[in-house]
Amino acid sequence: MYYRMDINHIFSFVAAFFIGITLGLFGGGGTILTLPVLAYLLKYEYEVAILYSMFIVGVTTFVGGINSYIKRFLNLKAAYSFGIPSLIAVFITRKTLTPWIEQITWHLYKYEFTGNHLLMCLSAILMIIVALFMIFKKQNDTLVEKEKKKKFYFGIILKASIVGIISGLIGAGGGFIIVPSLIAFYKLKIKEAIGTSLVIIALNSFLGFIGDFVNIQLSPFKIYYDINSFLNNDWLFLFAFTLISILGIVLGLWISRRIEATRLKIAFGYFVLLMGIYVMFKELF
Fold this sequence. Notes:
Elements: H1 7-26, H2 34-41, H3 46-70, H4 76-95, H5 97-102, E1 105-108, E2 111-114, H6 115-136, H7 149-170, H8 178-186, H9 190-211, E3 214-218, E4 221-225, H10 227-231, H11 235-256, H12 261-284
Antiparallel strand pairs: 1-2, 3-4
Helix pairs in contact: 1-2, 1-11, 2-3, 3-9, 3-11, 4-7, 4-9, 6-12, 8-9
C-alpha cells in the first residue's frame, strides 16, 4: 500500500511547515493559514477542511503548549478561565449553528452566495479588525481596577464565547482572536499571550474534532460515537501534515523568543491583515 502525492500535496506539506512556524510565532493567529490551504490548495470540501484543520491545529498547538509550559510562557489562570467558556461555545456551535448555516443559500443579482461563503467573508472581516487592533493599539500594562472587575469578567466570557463560536464555524481559524484578547483582558506580554493561546486553541480544536463524531439523542437520552465516520478520515495525510507542522512550530517558538516583543506584535498584525485581505478577495472574486 502506498500514498500517491500530486504537486498540490507537495506544496501543502511545504505550507504545513510554514503553518507550524506561524503558530510558533503568532500563537493562535497562525491557525488562519490551515483552512485556506486545505480548502483552496487541496480542494477539500469545506466541511472536511474545517474538520481536518481542527485535528492538525489541535495536535500541533498541544505540542507548542507543552513547550511554552516548560519555558514558562504559559499563564494557567488565563488558559482555564478563557478556555472553558470557549470550549462550551465550540461544542454548541458545531452541533447547532454550523449545520444550519451550511444549508443556507443567498442570491444577489447573478451571484450565488452559500453559507460557507458568508462564513469565510465574516472571518476575513474579523481578521482585518483584529489586525488593525494589533498594529495600532499600544499595550497598557496597568492593572485592572477593582471597580472594573465585573466588566473584566464579563468581557472575558464574551470574548471567549466569540472565539468558541468562530472556531466552531470556521474551524481552528478562530484562534486569531485569542492573542489580542489575552493582551487586552489579562495584560499579558505578547510572548506569554502566544504561549497561552496555544493551549486554549489546542483544547478548542480537540473538542471540535471529537465532537463532530458524537451524536446526542434526547428522547430517550443517549450519547453515541460514530466510529465509522471517525475511521474514514484520511489519517495518513493528517498524520503526515501534522508531523510537518509540529516541526515548524518548534522552529517558530525558537524564533519568537529571539525577536523583540513589540516588533512581534506588529508583525502579527500585518500577517493577519494580509491573510484577511486574501481570504476576502478569494471569496468575492
